[in-house]
Every structure is written in structure tokens, then in C-alpha cells.
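Hi team,

Filling in the usual template for the complex we talked about on Friday. All components are listed, including any nucleic acid strands or ligand strings, so the model treats them as one assembly.

SUBMITTER: L.P.
PURPOSE: interface mapping
COMPONENTS: three
RESIDUES: 1185
SEQUENCES:
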Amino acid sequence: MARMTTASEYALKRSKRKQFFKNYGIVLLFLGPFIFFFLLFCVYPLFYGIVMSLMRYNIADPSKNEWRGFSYFQTLLSNSNSIYNTEFWYSMKNTALFAVILVPLAILVPLAIAVLVNSKPRGYKVFRALIYFPSILPVSASGVIFISLFGTNFGYINQWLGQTIGWLDQTTTAWFVIILLCLWGGWGGNFIILSAGLKNVDKSLYEAASVDGCTGIRRMFAVTLPAIKPQLIVCLFTTIIGYFGLYGQVYVLTNGGPANPDTGVGTTATIMWYLQSLMNSGQYDIYGMVSAMGLTLGVFIGCITGIQLFLTRERKSGTKLARAFAAYKAEKAEKASEPVPAVREEANGNE
Amino acid sequence: MSKVLLAAIIVVCTVCFAMVVLDFVVVGLKKRKELGEGRVARYLSKNLFRLNAFVFLLLFCIVWLVPIVVGVIGSFTSQYAFENHPGELIPSDGFTFDNYIALFSKYDTNGVRLPVERWILNSFIVSTVTTVLYLTIAGFAAYAFVFLRFRGQRIVFYVLIFTMVIPGVATMTAQLANMANLGISKSLFALILPSLGGVGGLYLIRQFFLGIPQDLIESARIDGSSNLRIFVKIVLPLAKSVFLVQGLFCFMGAWNDLLWPQVILGTADKSLWTLQVGIAYIAGSKTANSIGINLASAIVSAVPILILYIFTQNKIIEGVAATGVKR
Amino acid sequence: MKKGKIITKIIAVGLAAAFTAGIAAGCGSGSNNVQDDLKFDEFGDPVFENVDLKVWSIVGDPDDVYLEKVNKMFNDYYRENGLQAKITPIVNGDFYQQVANTITTDPRNAPDVIIIHSERLSGLAANNVIVPMSEYFEAAKTEFDPDAYLDNVMGECYYQNKLYGVPLDVHAGVWFVRSDILEKNGLEKPTTLTEFVEVCNALVEKYEAGTLWHREMNKTNEAACVWTQSKTFGDNYYPVVMSKDGGIEQGWIPQTAVFQNGGKLTDEKGYPAWNTKGLEDVMTMFRNWQTGQGDFKGTPYKGAFVSGKDDVNTVWSKLASGEAVFSCEGPWWIEQRLNEYEDILGDLPDDGNKTYAPLDIMNMSKLYALDENAEYAGEIYGVGHCFSICRTVTSKTKRVAAALYAKFMTENAVDYMQGGHLPACKAILESQQYKEKPFYDRYLKEFGDPENFVMLGNTPHYSAVYEGLKNVYSDIFNSNFKDRTVAQIIKSRYDYAVNFIKASEGL
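RESULT (copied from the run log):
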């Protein structure tokens, strides 16, 4: 039975609809394009990957696909007889070690350099440009340069030292070279972000701090670091994710080697390198397993970043920010001498 | 050990030592209030940290650039010199353009010269279009996340963040099928579109947007400005720097990418290649197996982006420096 | 409340759609239906109208030029019939990956014919990438006679007794020899392992005594190319270059060593079978060559032959400097290198006004046979290239065309052999045209009898079998493995290969 619609109901509905579009039309307009591409190129492959991880997926011939349920995950998590299990965790361990060494270095070194540059010594613009420069090189290019530096027989370093060290043939030295390449060609982004953050720390905070007799290292911890917290979080977050995806440098320099005498597995094999080496092993039905590994890795990184986000909880809500801002303003009005560990945006409002 | 290296180490150590001594002297004198009133003394007492920073940065930059210098010099060194007189910065048989000539005079089996200029153009198209589109799309999305209120905002954002941790390798096969289904697997769209769904840049932009006071936006709203107007007139100027930074990252990412273009474009149609794919092809062929050619290819693949960097680095870094502060 | 629900709904629907799409894509079928569109003319020959074959080839730079010559012959011959082929060489390491990926995800851009290594054929056939060919020869009313091709490489073109490929060539790694240094010092090119060791001992001994004649091949400085007896190379002199990461030696030497001592690379199941005593003995010998310790059949070594620190760059540089007399590389280099050495050193006389041929090649026959009289001592590990048809070709006419293409190319591939390959087609081997080619006399005949080439054998587990053996060789030269015995290395690599296969079978 068709329902009669009274004029008032219609008007109400219409206004509701209008309200909806007024409220959400703009959201759709602003967010829509991104979500569209995100769904198409991130979510869809992700679900496809999840489906793949549940089957023996043959990229050469889909008619040979067979469902495997969660057996791949079971293998990865509990069956230590399978080489997929042992090698996965071995390369995970390598990657974690890399990350543990690299993440602090890749944040502290750029931070230190950024502090130096931020003091604006003579020609600091040139220094800034030069320091960032290696980061614009493609990994393949900087890898080639490093090989020409660290080659055994014709490498410049060995020639200068008068040695024939097999830099890339021994585990420790190979790691050293990889880490060097990661640092040389890798932290420019962090450097830029951090120096931008430092630049924007409100000068009045420093002045207030120095009135208070807080200088040098103490000022660094009490004023500077809290002030660039958002930048630090961005850096930490992207760096951890970045180094868990460490692949190009290893691929170019050592291709996973040198081998471990006991297992024959490469001692510089990172998890990403391992995944791609599986995919390129010429075995067409390995893709389900590779997807399962990728997802396990994803959950793993997800946990780490979750913990890290929790530990460095930021103020999410805009109202909170506004409140903090208002509080800061009020405090300033009272000419309170104690510096507030302020977030960066507070600098904007003091006019 | 070569004399050059030894000399370099000695110079670096001496400079460092001299600087440390100077620091101690100045700080000591300052403490005892015995520092004179001369111009030098005043300068030192005021700018000690800056002076230290200058000296340190100078040394650091010199060491920092060694690989670049070696790379450039190596690309002008013949394979002969590499094999017979390795380690010489000035090769005994002189500098040569052979490596570059070999790179640019490569012919395919049908006697057609490889279209290097076409590759450069492709790389530029892909990088520029990707950057512009991504900044627009992600900028609006970040605005929605920071300055608009809607239900499920946080959940959507967390979903986005979560997908960031799924490695690209794991979804590559799916992405390939995706491209083929959309019918764009053999076109430059296949290089541009997938990166538009990336979350990393959105996260960075959002993080900077959080630094813009909500009061500013609220008061603009009360004045009756539409969201679009607020975005263009207030947010964009304030966050100019993050767009520059993200733009640079985006451009470089697209320019330097090798794996995905190689996989998706294949080798059948060389006129579709990007510069990186082409360079890898030439440097990887068996007749070109030499350090010099590899270095030359590295330099060539870096030069266009280097030129861009030289012309824009001031703007970019100054832009970064001006982040958020608009007086 | 309601608005919230709508958003949730949209998200839920979106996710569900993505999930279903994922499943649908995951279960898509690789249909193999062939459209029977073949027509014949009044003479009973198949008719082709604008058939263009897309060919992907693993044969890359530098020998792709010679393959293109043959392809041009084909195009000229079949132009009237409306049949053309275009070869795209793919030099990326992931050729087999790319073929499989493209065929499944993007059939429109997939190749019709692929030129592959014959040892990879089983793996491709097992995964349905390529299709059996016999019926298309029948359809074309052309006879395909397997006996017209060499048995060894033909054997690799079958999978489960069906013909999947037509063989083009066989080839193997070769030793490059500084024949001028040997001749000047009164030594001869070795043909057996015993002779090889004798020559190396003599070279080392002469160098220690300061009586070894040697000269450099120097492009830019002719003065460096004169004969000298000085001890230019320091205290340690190594006449042989064996590098652990060149990719060439490890791809030929250990495999040949297994064959020449009576072993096989694979067993009937396609599992590795190279863990033999012969391999162990030869690898132990290589270790002794690095240290100069030990003896060969009772005669102690005069010194180390191999430095143990060589890499891919030293393969050519040490040969050019005159330090190394023997260096192993791929056959595709031969022509280029012979030209280079002859240009610079060919006409340079010594004091007695005598000129020497500076460079020569030598095949691996008997070089790793501990018993030189055994019937298998002359075997050489060989690799073939072959033509196969991809399953993405759905038109029968095109499949017939592809079969004809494969046959034509392999039967007319004389010019291709210039790149350093031996023909798989017996007719070419015996033809006058082939034997009259200058490159035949110059180097091809040095390759030895193609009948002596032994292939890997049909195995779908190619990479586990082959890579495992390659790794044994590089481990022998790796300082990380110094405290492992050869037997331990072989066992651990063998176990790993078997575990790898078992794990992949249990997927």
C-alpha cells in the first residue's frame, strides 16, 4: 500500500535530506576522491591479498588454485619444520635488528644536524641543501656508487686503505655498508621535517626559558623536544615502517648475502628481500604463502606502531587543541614565566 | 694506506682538536669573566655555538659528499683505468665521455636508437601528474579529517593508518590484476593512479594541519566562509610548506621508482618506459657490464632531479621553514 | 543516528564488494579454449591473414642481434602469406615471472611465442603456461621430426611425453685462454684435467723463478704490451680466475664436474642428485687450488692457482693484465673479445720478430674428470634455447603459425650461431653453409661435439636443483665457510634444496 505523504512530512524529509547533504556533501566532496582511489588501489588489493593467503594461489594458471584455509598462517606461526617458517622468522629477526640499530640513528643524527643548522651558522642554506642532496638520489644510483666505493678488488676505499677487504662478503662489514647507505641516502626526509619543526618553535618560548635560566641541554629537553613532538612522531612512525620495508639497499648491495654457514640463508636477508626473492624464485604457486607472510608482517608492524602511537599519544580532538590554545593564551596574558611544553600551533596565535 | 686519505684524516683531526681547544678556552675565560672586550672576544662569546656548528657542518659536508664526487669522477673513468689503476681519482688515461656515449648511443636489435629523451619525458609526465593530483586529493582529504566533523571519522582514519603497514610486495600481484582489469596496464596511468591512494602523504599533511589552530577556522566559518574558501584562503597558505615537502617526496618517489614500472610496463614497448627502467635496461645488458657505465647511468638518472632540486631547493626549504607561521 | 548508519552501511557494502571481487578474481579460471578458425587454400596449405606473432625472448644483448637476422628471414619469407613475427628481447632477470604474470593478469598484452631456456620448459609446462605443439604441426600439414634435432636438447622439450618446444641451440660456458703466454713459455693448451694442472704448475713455477714471459693487453698504452719476465704481480701469482659471484662459472663448472665424474643433476622424480663423491672430490681440489696445499694424483701443487678473492670484475682484468692465463665466461663474449685481443696484440712481435695469437677458447670437456678415460669424462653441461607457444593464443590459426615459426627459425638459424651457440638442428650442423661461415672456423668448432652436451634433465624444481649446486660452488670460495668441510657444505646445500622442494610440494 502506498503511503500517503503529508506535506509536513515531506518538508521534514526534504529538510533532513538537505541537512544531510549540507553536513555530508562537503565531506564527500573533500574525502571522496581520496577514498575512491584508496579503495580501488589499497583496499581492493589488500582483500585480494587476504583471499590469496587462504589458497594455494598459482599466478601462472588460476585454474589450479586450491583453498588452503588458514594452513599457511598455521605453518608460519607454529610449524618450525617448514623452511617457510624458519626463514620467515630468520629474516624477521634480521629486519628487527636493522630497525633497532637504524631507527634511533635515523632520527637522532638528523635531529642533531638540524639543531646545528638551525643555529644559522654562516652559509647554513648551502649546508642544508648539501646534506639533503643524497636523499634525492634513487637507491639504484646510490647503490651503484657504494659498490664502486666498497668493491673488493677495484673499490676506492680498499685502494685508499691499501687492503683487499671483502666488504660485502662478510656479515658484519656487509651490514655496516648497508647501514651506511641507509643513513647516507635515507634520512634527508627526516632532516627536512625536523628542521622545519625546529624553525617553528616559538622564539618567545626560548626567551621565557632563558629568563628562567634554562639553557643548553636542559632547554633542549624542556622546550625544544616537546615543541617538535608532532614532527618527531611523523618521523618515528614513517621511519619504523620504512625500515621494516628495507629492501632496495639490500637488493643492490648484497642481494641477501653473505650466506650463513649453518643454514645457507643470507645473513643480510630482510623480510622484504625474502618476500621478493620467493616471488622471483620461479615458483608460480608460492603467492598464497607470500601473501600470508606479508599479512603476518603487516600485523606485526601494526602492533609495533600501535604501541608506539599509544606511548606517544597525541591530542586528537580539535576542541582539545583549541582549549590548550586558549589556556596558553590566558597563561601568556598572565605573563606566567614558566614555559609550557607547547605544541607547535601555539606559535600562531600570539598576535 | 694512500697519502691523500692520511692527509685528509690528519686535517680533520687537527681542525676538530683546534675547535675543542678554542671552546674550552672561551668557556673557561667566560666563567672566570676574563674574556676581553675586543671584537673577536665579543663575537666568540656570542656566537661560539654557531662557530662550532659551522666548523662541524663544513667537515661533515665534505665527508658527506665524498660518494657523490667519487660517483661523478668514476662515471668519467674508463673501464680500463678501473681495472688497471683502481682507486685513482684522476685516471692515468685521462677523463673520458665513453661511458655516457655508450649510454646514449645504444641501439636495439632492429637498429633503432633507444628513445632516451622519450623516457625522460615519460618520467616527467608521471612524476608531475602524480604530484599535482596527489597533493590535491590528499590535501582535501586531510582537511576533511582535521577541520570537518563526521561520524566514523576516527575509525576511517585508523583504517587508513592500518593499511599503511601492509607491505606493497604482498599486494603486488593483486595490483597487477587490478591494472589489467581496468585496462590501463600498458599505459602511464598504471604508474600514476595507484600512488593516489597512498596514506603516507595524507598522514604527513594531516599532521601539519593539526598545527593550525581550530580557532582560526572557526572564526572564518562564523564570518560565513565556505569550506572551499577556507581551504584555499587560510589552510593552503599556512600549510604551503608541507605541500612543498610532500610534493618533493611525491615527485622523487615517482621519479625514482624502478620495481613497479618494470613489472607493470614490461619490456615490450620501449616508448612507454620511464628513465629508470631504460637506464636499468642499458646498464644491465651483458655488453655494458662495467663500473663506469653503471656510474654514468646513476648520474644520468639523477641529473634531471638534481636540476629540479637546485632550482627549487631554496623555495622548498624556505617553505618548510615558514611552516605554519604567517604573520 | 541515521546518518551514522548510512556511513557504516556504505563502508560495509564497499568492503563486502571488495571482498567478493577479491574472491572472484582469485577463483577466475584460466580457460584454454581454442577457437578453430583455421582455413586452407586450394593447395591444402593453411591461410594466414595478417597474423602477427608477438615473441618474447630470453636471448638478450649481445646475441639478440643475430637472432633478429633469422627473424628477418622469416618475415621476408612469409610476408606474402600475411604472417609476421616481432621479437622482444627481455633482459630483466624476472623473465619467467613476467611471462606467467602477464599471461594470467593481462592476456591481451601477453606474448604468443616465447623463446626460453629448455631446462625451464618442464616448469612452464607443468603450470600450463605453454601448450603441447604436435597437433598444430599436424594441422599445418607439416611434418615435425624430432630426430632432426639433437637428442639431448630435444629430450628437454618433452613434458609428460608431449612435445612442448622446438629446440634452437645448445651452448655452454667456455674457458678463455691467453694462448700467446702459453706459446711463448713453451706450453700447450690443456685438454684434460691432468694437463690443466701440469700447465698451471709450470706457470707458477716459472713465475716464482722469474722466468715467466707475460704481456699486458693494453688498449691505450702500446708500450705496456711488450713481453716481460719481471715479477709484476707481486709475491702471489694466480694463473686461473675463478670467481664466486660472477654467475658464469658457478653456472657451468660444478654442473660439468658432476657429469664428468659419472653423476647426474636430477633423479627421476626431479629431485637434485648432484650430491656425489665426484662433486666432493672436485670441490676439494678447488679448495686446494686456493691454498696451494695438497697434491694432484700424488704430485704436490707448486703453489696456489686461484686467489679466492676474484669477483665478476677480475674475470677480464686479470686476463688482460697477463696475470691470469685461464678465465671462464659465457660464449656470447667470444667474438667481441677475440676481436679486441687480436686488434691490439695480434700483430705485435716479440724480440725474435714472432707474432702470437693472443686469445683462444677451450671447452670444458675432460677438464673436471678425475678419471680421464671414463666414457662420461667428455661430457659438458649444456643449456638450450627453445621455442614454445603460450596458452593465451586462442586462435588455432595463430597456434599453427607459431608452430611453423618455431620450425622455420630453428631450421634456418645459421646466422644466429655467430653469437656463440651450436645449432640443435642436425641439418644445420652438417650443412656446408654452416661450416663455411668464418665464425665456425674461428671459434664454434672449439666448442666440441654438441652430442657431448648433457642437459639438466626435466624437473619442475629447476631453481632448487640448480641454485643449490651453484651455491655449493660459491661456498667453496667464501671465507665465511672456511671451517666447513666440502662434504658438510654439499650436504647442507643438498638438504636445503630437498627441504625447499618438499616445502613447496606441501603448500
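MY TAKE: Chain C touches chain A through 58 residues (CB under 8 Å). The two ends of chain C are 48 Å apart (CA to CA).

Thanks, L.
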